[in-house]
Amino acid sequence: MAELTVSTPKKHHLQDRCVLCGMVFCNVEITPSGRKIKTSVNMNKKLKITKQTVDDLHLVIDMDLTSTDATGICIKCNRLVKGVVEKLQIIKQTLNESIGYSRKLTVKRLLWSPSSSSTTQQPMKKVFSPKVQLWPKTKLKSASELQTMIISPYGKSGNVLQEPSGNTCTQLSTGDNAVRQMATTTEALLQFHRPILPAISEQPNIPNVITETSDKQTKARKSLFSPVSGQATDKKGPKVESFQDFKVHPVSQKEKPLVITVYYESGKRTVVIENKDHIKMCKVIFYQKNVEKGLMEILETTSKDQFAAYAAKIVKNECETICKRHSDFALTDKTYEGIMEFSWDHLYQDLLLGAPNTLRIVSSMVTSSIPMPVPSKEFHHALFAIGIILHGRNREATTLQYLNGMVLLHGGCTHQDMKRLAKLGVCVFPETVRNKLQSWQSNLDEKLLEVKEKWCKGDSMTYQLVGDSWDKNIVPSYRTSKNSTQSIHLFNVIGVIDRIVIKKEEGTPVRTVDSMTAVDFIPSEGDIDSLQKELTFLVARSVIQNIKQMEDLFGKIYPGHLEHIHSNEAGMKTSQYSLGLFDCDEKKTADVIRLLQNLTEKYVPKKDGEIVEEVFFGGDRLTDEKIQVAQQAMRNADSGLERLEGFISKIEDFHRLMNFLEAIHRLSYNTQSSRDRGTVHYYRNLLNARNVKGEVKNSYRAYKQLYYTLFDAICCVLFLKKFELDSCDSTIPVPQGIKDWEADQQLQWLNDKCGEIVKEIFPHDLFAELQNVLADPDHEENYWVNSIENDNFKCHFCNSRYKYVTSLKMHEKTKHQVNMSAKVQTTNSLLRQTDELNDYLVSVFRLTALHQNLNSAVDMGDGYRVVRSAKFETPIYNRTNKVKYLIGSVHLTALVSGTLPAHQSKRLIANRFINISGGKNNNLSLDEFVEILNRDTKNATHGFQTKDSIVQHSKEFPHLVHAVKHFDAMCEVKKRKGFHKLPSYKEDVKKVLIDLLSINGLEVRPGRTLHCRKIVQKSSNPFSDCFVGLPVMIARHKPELPFRRLRNKNM
Question: Residues near 746 by Cβ (< 8 Å), separated by ≥ 6?
Fold first, then answer.
């Protein structure tokens, strides 16, 4: 079988093509079958050859169209020819004007001079014929030896060639010969891009040069106008942005010389430029576009060393200027404010004003994007490098080096390592840093002393001190029998300026402590009403945050801050100052006395040797107690200053929160309850909260989050039960059209629903038993307390009096056979009729609600709510035998209820918080801030291994801590989180919510029991049986004076 052959179609071109470039306008294709197909693909680009076209072609390239069979010219070639013709006309006109001006100038110089002696002689005007040559002719080089340049108008700036009135102009040649040479050059231009025309390419005497043309030629070929072969050009012509747009590309390797003629009033001067780089510079100046940039780009490639030398000279001058003395440069300010308030932005602005070129050069080494993104890693690196460089030039530019040295000292860097880094300019020497820190010791309390001076003169602005023990164990490098672990006990003190100013004349008088009974130390009816309003807010916020439907309805309109009397001031930042570490072990009374004497001398406002007003001294319960013990030890001194009565100790709120949670933990948490669904330990295992372990004081925040998770879940369960729903995914039947209600009406509906829940959980009769017992003088708990008369205990049956209550008890027991009846124990049969799980959950919910109410009060800066909470804590502390914090709650209630004057009581209530960052919900308790400061200070003492060295440099640590925090903020250093995967609080609440709904934990089902008997509650009321021993504790510790608030030993 014969193979099938496929022939390729042949293409036959017609004679219809462009006269210049030879582009075919139509062609004929012959198929394998012999069929002819005529295709006119380029006919839309064809133009007819008119008489004007023939004249233009003859002028430009001296072409005879009779010898060619072309029938048209393409659009691009026609546009190119027209543009060249226009330029030739402009050149001829410009040269003619130049020759005419020179002729007039010569005639003017030959006129009669006024300095001639003959004043009557008429001046003889010498007029020369235009054909007379006024200056010697210069032999022009041939077209092959002379590199010519087209003098043309560019863009909108007009003709580049100017009149010779002292300005510079470029002369290529004169007369018609210049036009002919230009035509020849243009012909070479066309010939270089038209190699397919043999008739034209064989013309002799064509200079080997390609000259760029003007941007008036809007649609020229890329090969004619692009500076680089193959580079795309705009449709309207080439865009001139830099010197590269005017580059001349010679055909041959040899660069042609350039003739430059400069005209002056007295004559002219012609120079032949043969250096190719100088020729490029002349052309850049000639085109008058981006001249400076073009010259710089040429020098960058041709004279790099000189270019860099002049750039270095510029940088040198700038650095000399900014490093001069008294220049107010950021790096030369070594004052406390200059170092502690140093910022990259400040340095950046100074460099932009004083050394912009230096900044640009260094920035180009770091990043290619100029200007640099601010702030960024590159930004910090560039400025840090400049800081080290300028420190090498000027030893006084050490602001950044001081800050780096403080960071290294804070991290425990050895002095030898700091010296090594100081040699490189990273920091200053360690001795220099130490000297600077020692000179700043007066800055620690400078602001406090200013307030003290005004306070002594009657000003209303006040401050308070807060302190806490600072303990650290130093493990020796080599342990021996004599070199064992050292336990160091110091005392850290801060001063806080009161945010809310209370004047002495403000406030209403309060009753005295003598008129207060035990009932005044537990919640009253008004306190319960206030608690219900506060818990309504907390329950509503919990429902909104954990139920999606409620979040969509109320998330944007429900307030996040519960308004109180000082809400406007709660968002203000406070001013607090660390006073350093003191050599004081608070467990030793002698050390506390010495500490208080030093602080009294320096910070208690005095006038004529008398105390103007007492200063509050806050801390935990141990600090509160030890200050009172020290005052008791000095009670026999002559003056109030010597008796240390310049300070009034008080208990702070962070330790109250921690100890209240410990009390809740004692009542509700046990590791043996893991089998009992609904208990706190069961949910600890369910949520895999492995950080909840050990004592509460060591894992406070983990325990708090676990209890708050259960609280939020119970809030959601109670809210769903309000609508008789048993699933967290059920749709809550809200009123129809509630979205169209006013915001106040929507909030009122939600608050009403949550208020009903709170009133069911916290009814007024919740404290009825406690109130009835404390108010009943005949109750057995009040039997011994009511017998006090004139600090003695009187017998109920005779006139015998005793100093101690134990003596009275023995007297009545032996003489009058008084035997107080024992409490009746609840039988097991009654316990079986109760729902132990429901009682447990309700009791935990009530206690956790009280804790969260206190915690939110601290966050929101509500001092009145914080102080009122002490009345709710007192019964729980009594029930769990937390005696010290029971005493603290009694003291706090007594101080604000009659022990202190009215204005001091208001100061104690209003100024219990620190706000570092601002915001109404960002307050901290005073002792929590001290705990944070203790942790930071311990980190700053890594390089010290003895107590003496720590005490010697104790006033330096606050500055180091401040410097590191400022450095972190300046460089945007963020602390790493302690979790590999952050837990989702909402998901944990949902897990507990689903489990509570599945076991119906909040429904009363009699007979339901718990396996772990240690957490079984006697009832759902955690305040039941809290009255045992409470009246005696209140009577024993109720203070009559704000000082020496120790117990009555007779009780």
Answer: 553, 554, 557, 738
